[in-house]
Amino acid sequence: MKQACVVEVGPRDGFQxxxxxxxxxxxxxxxxxxxxxxxxxxxxxxFVSPKAIPQMQDAAQIVNRVLDKHPSTEFFALTPxxxxxxxxxxxxxxxxxxxxxxxxxxxxxxxxxxxxxxxEGIAVIRQELPDxxxxxxxxxxxxxxxxxxxxxxxxxxxxxxxxxxxxxxxxLCDTIxxxxxxxxxxxxxxxxxxxxxxxxxxxxxxxxxxxxxNSYVSLQNGAQSVQTSVAGLGGCPFAPGASGNTATEDFxxxxxxxxxxxxxxxxxxxxxxxxxxxxxxxxxxxxxxINIQD
Length: 294
Hints:
Blueprint: E1 2-3, E2 6-8, H1 10-14, H2 24-36, E3 41-46, H3 59-69, E4 74-78, H4 82-91, E5 95-101, H5 104-111, H6 115-128, E6 133-139, H7 152-164, E7 169-174, H8 181-194, E8 200-204, H9 211-220, E9 225-228, H10 248-257, E10 260-261, H11 266-279
Parallel strand pairs: 1-10, 2-9, 3-4, 4-5, 5-6, 6-7, 7-8, 8-9
């Protein structure tokens, strides 16, 4: 049977989109539900300034709780800079994710740096934390809200620079869901051809109801993992119009029907999605299965 790696990012990418602070016990209950449903890799929080994203102020508490309770689950966190990376390491995490944009305009809006400054900062993180596993999320690969459609040669150049710093893996992100299947196929085929030994994943938003389709196409064309968010909760706060992530339960449903093994218990996952929507009603959800009555 074909295997598919579904990476859950709801506890970070999903939660950070909610303005009202979510009680830590609800966050932990959602994470427990995801682990119980069989999600083996979870982006659990972000070590970012509470002034920038107040929702993530409990990052260290979350990590301490989940590492003790679920030692066999692969947890990782997003860190925007060296300070956040060091905080993640101090919390006990062995893997972090750093982010930069292919688009200069979006990178400036998102992290207030040029792309080159971000590349240099990521190299410093690698030097300071040599034992940390580091993955890189490259935002706006398929299109930018400020610059329009992006080109492949700058992407290849950027990945090459990041590779020189010793990054472990890369995730190509359709930040505002402007990608279409043939474009997704072309981009993933290009990076796989240019970097055959590198590990690539996909992160596709669902603003235009293209998330499940584009995620599936990425998996068929070189992506070794796909990031999704339970109930479709999320969206980029620094990209106008970037509402909604691809819902984990919707993508898992498709994979199972297409003969993939995900290791995920769909019924338990759907229960977790519905629990989240019931307890965080103000969230922006794109998931379709959470609206289906059993």
